[in-house]
Amino acid sequence: MMRQVQLAVIGGGPAGLAAAIAARESGVEDILIIERDKELGGILNQCIHAGFGLHTFGEELTGPEYARRFIDRVEELHIPCQTDTMVLDLSPDRVLTVTSRARGLEQIQAGAVILAMGCRERPRGALNIPGTRPAGIWSAGTAQRLVNMEGLMPGKEVVILGSGDIGLIMARRMTLEGAHVRAVAEVLPYSGGLKRNIVQCLEDFDIPLLLSHTVVDIHGRERLEGVTLAQVDDQRRPIPGTEQYIPCDTLLLSVGLLPENELSAAAGVTLSGVTGGAVVDETLSTDHEGIFACGNVLHVHDLVDFVSQEAALAGRSAARYLQQGRHTGSAIRLEGKNGVRYTVPALLTGQSEEPVTVRFRVAQPYRSAAICVYADGTLLRRIPKRILAPGEMEQVTLRPQELPEGTQTVTFCIEEGTK
Q1: Can you count the helices (H) and strands (E) in the chain?
Q2: What is the pLDDT of residue 124?
Q3: Which residue, of 152, 157, 190, 294, is most buried by count of CB atoms within 10 Å of its CB?
């Protein structure tokens, strides 16, 4: 017999936990959190460094401490959790096919679904790096789990490709564990990580950051023996004559994160070609009735505090849907141009008079620029910014009342200069 639940939350990481809590506090009694790992908390369990919770709790916590605050609340609210369970399929009419060792294969019909599956790392196979395939090449997140949770060291002489936040944090972590991080190479002319991580994880430990560099060859057969780095031009093509060989036994890849949207695609949810996540409105509803998305499965965040804020909105929206049904009506399109890569949400449907937080990333670094908001070509707001960086998410509060009647498109863009 098919199980019935009001709300199924797929993922027990920071997004899923916050969404489930908000839904229960909004009146939904029948909630099920489904998590494929053996415990709740998601990626936070391996993030033992401090820096979490400043926005949410006003104090600095480690990843496990931050997760524990939400896990404790889930337990206080008696929200059921099914761990060590994999969701194999999600149908357009919200039927979940799941499997677990304890319960076997089963189907669950949900009144509403919140997608909170998080993201995964881009693997070596997506990079087209030439060379052999020896042991010693890891994604930065896998190395983080080995060191922080398994007590294992991937190696002693380390090169890191990519300057995303996980790679920067692992440069520091490997150094503290006694390894020698020889360099962090970044193919772009700027880092993709937070400024604070560049300072605290590289500069404080005298670890060189080689911008506009990439790995062009991998050496070694059984075990990694070294890598060849080269400078790249503005088309990211290696420049002949700039090659340098660096001996190492470990290469960590921190080359981007991809939202885990296989289930979303199976349900027929429309996905963004930029973020890889679902296209949502201001309630975080997808274009499929009763299916909502939040957290890193929607777009990759820089701070977990923002994940929790966004997920709480998804939980409240799912509760409202279960209580009132689906809202229908015309929508205003949100778009990013001239330096703004995307916007979340992508649509305004007028379901609330409350201010809407629009989040996005810029395409390149800017100094002395401004975020500009236009309604059908008419300037609504100009927000001066001293620095804008791709590694740090921007957000603008948009009030529906400030939009002229009949607005069809709201455009967010970057304008340089100080006017």
Answers
A1: 7, 26
A2: 83
A3: 294
Burial of 320 (0-12, 13-18, 19+ CB in 10 A): buried
Q: What tens digit of pLDDT does each residue of 47-101 get?
A: 999 999 999 999 999 999 999 999 999 999 999 999 999 999 999 999 999 999 9
C-alpha 307: how far from chain center? 8
pLDDT of 40 > 60? The answer is: yes
For the stretch 334-376, pLDDT in tens is: 999 999 999 999 999 987 778 999 999 999 999 999 999 999 9
This prediction's pTM:
0.94
Tell whether omega for the bond before 345 is within 30 degrees of 0, i.e. cis. Answer: yes
Q: Where are the alpha helices (DSSP H) in 39-164?
A: 63-76, 140-145
Domains of the chain: 3-120+258-325 (3.50.50.60), 123-255 (3.50.50.60), 329-419 (2.60.40)
One DSSP character per residue, 238-278 reads BPTT--EEEE-SEEEE---EEE--HHHHHTT--B-TTTSSB
Token reading at 292: 């909502």
- CA dihedral (85, 291, 288, 301) in degrees, to 10, reads -90
| Residue found by looking up tokens 């998080």 in the block | 118
* CA 14 – CA 17 distance, rounded (Å): 5
The CA-based angle 319-321-326, given to 5 degrees, is: 175
Helix (H, G, I), strand (E, B) or coil at 77: coil
Distances from the Cα of 277 to the Cα of 110, 240, 264, 298, 350, angstroms: 21, 37, 9, 4, 22
Look at residue 216 and tell me whether its pLDDT is greater than 90: yes
Residues found in the chain: 419
CA distance 256 to 361: 14
